[in-house]
Amino acid sequence: MRVLVTNDDGIDSPGLAVLANVAHAAGHEVVVAAPSHEYSGASASLIGHQSDGRLELTTGRPPGLAEGVRSFGVRAAPALIVFAASYSAFGDRPDLVLSGANLGANTGHATLHSGTVGAALSAATQGIPALAASVASADPQHWDTVTDVCRVALDWVVRHSPEGRVLNINVPDIPPDQLRGLRKARLAAFGAVQATVKERGEGWVHLAYEELDAKHEPDTDAYLLMHGWATSSLLRTPMHDVADPAPPEFTTDAADREEHEVAVSRGRTMSTGTG
Description:
Pfam families: SurE (PF01975). By secondary structure, this protein is of the alpha/beta class. α1 (14-25) packs across α4 (143-160) and α2 (78-85) packs parallel to α3 (115-125). The protein contains 6 helices and 13 strands. 28% of the residues lie in helices and 27% in strands. The protein has helices at 14-25, 78-85, 115-125, 143-160, 221-226, 253-273; strands at residues 2-6, 29-35, 50-51, 54-55, 57-58, 70-74, 96-103, 130-135, 165-171, 181-184, 193-201, 204-211, 229-236.
């Protein structure tokens, strides 16, 4: 399979090499294309730096990347990189997208804002299976644990290729012999942090952030991650919802006139055809 690896931490992040090397060791054709600088919190943004309509590339290579794996820095958000890759910007269209491994967990409803998850969702909307992986530390010390979990996750995505869905993986930053395992999990009702408005002034607002306690939400990704489990969750791409109540509708006179004109035109055509 052709595999694209990207992230939102930037081309110099060691997390890129973890995913790329796992895919490379599994025999896949791998290319790394990641932002030239950090795009954390970019969600599925299509922001990029273009010159004369050309998306700009830079040099860059994540530390520890296996020999023979091509690497591009791109002056763009990760979702735009994936979007461009789906049109063969970095070689043939990928069969699979791996995003991460992100520095910091992506749990709960905060996954909405994640550039790591946003890149994977961008792939899924293009019909490309995707995996988003994160480690619960800003400075991970146990990449071997992440490697072990991502190897299992990659094998699952390759075998099942869930259409319109992303496999979201979170791994605690603990030694492999302390990992309790990998558990499927529902999303917590919050993310890793909560924001509050600390102060307001003329023309400005000061936001304060605090880490939240996940102890009260058993079986969620945040809870299990805190208790030594790696977690797996399936996320859907945007889709039409037919649930009640139905969204509002109305019809104007213009629509009525158009329907009348179409009906008259069809009547004339039928009449002409029977002469």
